[in-house]
């Protein structure tokens, strides 16, 4: 395994906290998804028994990729591979998947604290089902992530970071909620700006009160997709949803997949057209968007310029299977979109 990068104590752009999961990507028909009783397009928590049942049904030919994932981790990795200085707090087990996960972080040049990151148990996994329309459906076995605690959070590093990035998936478990709220508290009493991703419409519906604790009275940036925005604001209009998001943030970003991106920046509304591509897998597209957007904003670009760059990066990602691009493509995307180094 590669040696982990040492914990930095200054100049960290983005500190992320989230579930550390190993992904198994599976191509599946709409009918098979229905037959297995899986709700399409959302994340569902499952136990180990259900995970094994699903794996027993799936054929080897349907499994197309294994990758280290987790929503916030994907964003942090993207930011790092664009050239940013990033740090990730999570938890994996002292098993094969856990060692592979940390090795992947090291190859992506992401900082982490190994002493806080690895423990006894089973590393979390996510079955990512890809239907012919490129939609992704996730069944997640949290494993050791269910034991994520404030002790895993490197508070010294967080206090020396420009942004704290949190996924709302954390709110699905009691330990995750405690950790997210603790990180929020630490950031509130430090210079770190707070960024929250709504993550999933089901999470918005079931964890509404906990999301409120994360974004009230205000945070610096909110990322969400259209369904999440509508679920949170109880509207069915992009402009109305963006207006309501402004109660909680000056910069609300609503991604709409192939229909583009809606940005409300301090009351200035902007719509960015999507880059047209032939999508095969939308898994990780929102995570990539957030990582590229944060890199661009930190590099001094405007919210609109950053939105255009992030949309181009997300469009490139969905032409691949898996939540990440080959490492060389991140620099190419920066150069093609005029994004300077940090």
Question: What structural category do the secondary elements indicate?
Answer: alpha/beta
Count every beta strand, where a strand is a DSSP E run of 2 or more residues. Answer: 15
Q: What is the spatial order of strands in the main beta sheet?
A: 5-1-10-11-12-13-14-15
CATH topology: UDP-N-acetylmuramoyl-L-alanine:D-glutamate ligase
CATH architecture name: 3-Layer(aba) Sandwich
Q: What Rg, in angstroms, do the CA atoms define?
A: 18 Å
Question: What percent strand?
Answer: 15-25%
CATH class: Alpha Beta
- Number of self-contained structural domains: 1
CATH level-four homologous superfamily name: Ribokinase
String of helices and strands:
EEHEHEHEEHHEEEHEHEHHEHHEEEHHH
Which stretches are poorly predicted, pLDDT < 50 over at least 5 residues? Answer: none
| Shape label | globular
Share of helix, binned? 25-40%
Question: Overall mean pLDDT score?
Answer: 94
Give the helix tally.
14
Termini separation: 28 Å
The largest pleated sheet is described as: 8 strands, mixed
Description of the structure:
- By secondary structure, this protein is of the alpha/beta class.
- The protein has a single domain (about 10-20, about 70-120, about 150-335), classed as Ribokinase (UDP-N-acetylmuramoyl-L-alanine:D-glutamate ligase), CATH 3.40.1190.
- It contains 14 helices and 15 strands.
- β10 (about 160-165), α7 and β11 (about 195) form a beta-alpha-beta unit.
- α3 (about 70-80) crosses α12 (about 285-300).
- The longest helix has 15 residues, at about 175-190.
- The two termini are about 30 Å apart.
- The mean pLDDT is about 95.
């Amino acid at each position: 395994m590669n040696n982990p990068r040492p914990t930095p104590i200054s100049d960290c752009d983005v500190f992320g906290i989230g579930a550390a999961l190993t992904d198994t990507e599976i191509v599946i028909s709409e009918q098979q998804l229905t037959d297995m009783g899986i709700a399409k397009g959302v994340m569902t928590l499952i136990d180990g028994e259900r995970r094994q049942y699903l794996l027993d049904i799936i054929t080897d030919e349907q499994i197309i990729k294994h990758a280290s994932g987790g929503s916030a981790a994907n964003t942090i990795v993207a930011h790092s591979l664009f050239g940013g200085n990033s740090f990730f707090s999570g938890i994996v087990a002292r098993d094969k998947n856990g060692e592979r996960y940390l090795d992947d972080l090291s190859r992506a040049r992401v900082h982490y604290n190994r002493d806080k990151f690895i423990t006894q148990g089973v590393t979390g996994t996510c079955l990512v089902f890809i239907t012919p329309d490129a939609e992704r459906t996730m069944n997640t076995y949290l494993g050791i992530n269910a034991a994520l605690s404030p002790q895993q959070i490197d508070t010294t590093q967080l206090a020396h970071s420009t942004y704290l990035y949190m996924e709302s998936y954390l709110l699905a478990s009691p330990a995750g909620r405690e950790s997210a709220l603790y990180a929020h508290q630490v950031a509130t009493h430090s210079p770190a700006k707070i960024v929250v991703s709504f993550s999933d419409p089901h999470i918005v519906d079931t964890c509404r009160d906990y999301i409120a604790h994360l974004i009230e009275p205000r945070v610096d940036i909110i990322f969400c997709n259209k369904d999440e925005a509508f679920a949170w604001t109880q509207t069915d209009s992009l402009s109305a949803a963006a207006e309501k998001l402004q109660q909680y943030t000056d910069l609300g970003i609503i991604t709409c997949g192939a229909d583009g991106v809606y940005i409300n920046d301090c009351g200035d509304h902007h719509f960015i057209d999507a880059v047209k591509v032939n999508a095969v897998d939308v898994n990780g597209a929102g995570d990539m968007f957030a990582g590229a957007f944060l890199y661009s904003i930190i590099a001094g670009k405007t919210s609109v310029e950053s939105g255009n760059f992030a949309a181009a990066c997300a469009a490139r990602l969905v032409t691949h299977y898996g939540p990440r691009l080959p490492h060389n493509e991140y620099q190419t995307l920066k150069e093609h979109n005029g994004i300077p180094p940090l």
